[in-house]
Amino acid sequence: MQKFMDLLKKVRIIDIIIIAGVILALVVGFFTFGNFRQTADKQIEATSKVRFQVYIRSVTLTGEKIPLVKGDKTFISIRNVPYSDLDIVDVQADRKKIVLPTFNSKKVVVVEDVSQADSYDIIVTLEDTAKITKDGAVVGGNKIKMGLPITLEGEDYRFTGIVSSLHILSIPDAHGVINNQSTTYDVQ
């Protein structure tokens, strides 16, 4: 008993912390390898093509053409973290509009805003392969959801927009058969 008490007097607080950390790591490892704890790679249910739209508001363009072109690639950054080049599937650009009342108070007219002649709203459709989880599609380590800020960058442009819709193009079922029905998460 005396030897045990002498040993306890020699043990420092840092030694106790290290021993507790090692025991904790062993317990977590046991539960992880025993399939009691779900790790990140086990949460991925499938890999699928996704198509999402990025809405870019009030872009001022004084040139003759819009720099985003269908069929080209654009480099994206998600939450200021560089990701990859993605294919541009579609580009829709529309000049800023205003609503004007008519003499008949029950009707209004939508016309181009001449005070903002060079201002456009652009919707860019991008396509990528994503990991599908219970929470949605994951692209570049980030969950792609509506409202997510994304930066599109090319040779002569850098635009920041938000994800406005998301379509999962095909999802393999539990037997590996691809379901070609499009799953849509956009609000219409």
User: How far do the termini sit from each other?
Assistant: 77 Å
Q: What is the count of DSSP helices, taking H or I runs of 4+ residues? A: 3
Number of domains: 2
Mean pLDDT: 81
Oligomer: single chain
Helical percent range? 10-25%
Question: Which sequence of strands runs across the widest sheet?
Answer: 1-6-3-2-9-10
- Kindly state the number of beta strands: 13
Biggest sheet, in brief? Answer: 6 strands, antiparallel, barrel
Question: What is the C-alpha radius of gyration, as a whole number of Å?
Answer: 27 Å
Low-confidence stretches: 180-188
Could you spell the SSE succession in H and E letters? HHHEEEEEEEEEEEEE
Beta-strand content bin: over 45%
Class from helix and strand fractions: alpha+beta
What general outline do the C-alpha atoms trace? Answer: elongated
Tell me what the structure shows:
The protein has about 190 residues and is of the alpha+beta class. It folds into two domains: about 1-35; about 40-185, no CATH class. Helices cover about 20% and strands about 50% of the residues. It is built from three helices and 13 strands, in the order H-H-H-E-E-E-E-E-E-E-E-E-E-E-E-E. The strands form three sheets. It has a six-stranded antiparallel barrel with strand order 1-6-3-2-9-10. Strand 11 (about 170) and strand 12 (about 180) form a beta hairpin. The radius of gyration is 27 Å and the shape is elongated. About 15% of the residues are buried. Mean pLDDT is about 80; it is low at about 180-188.
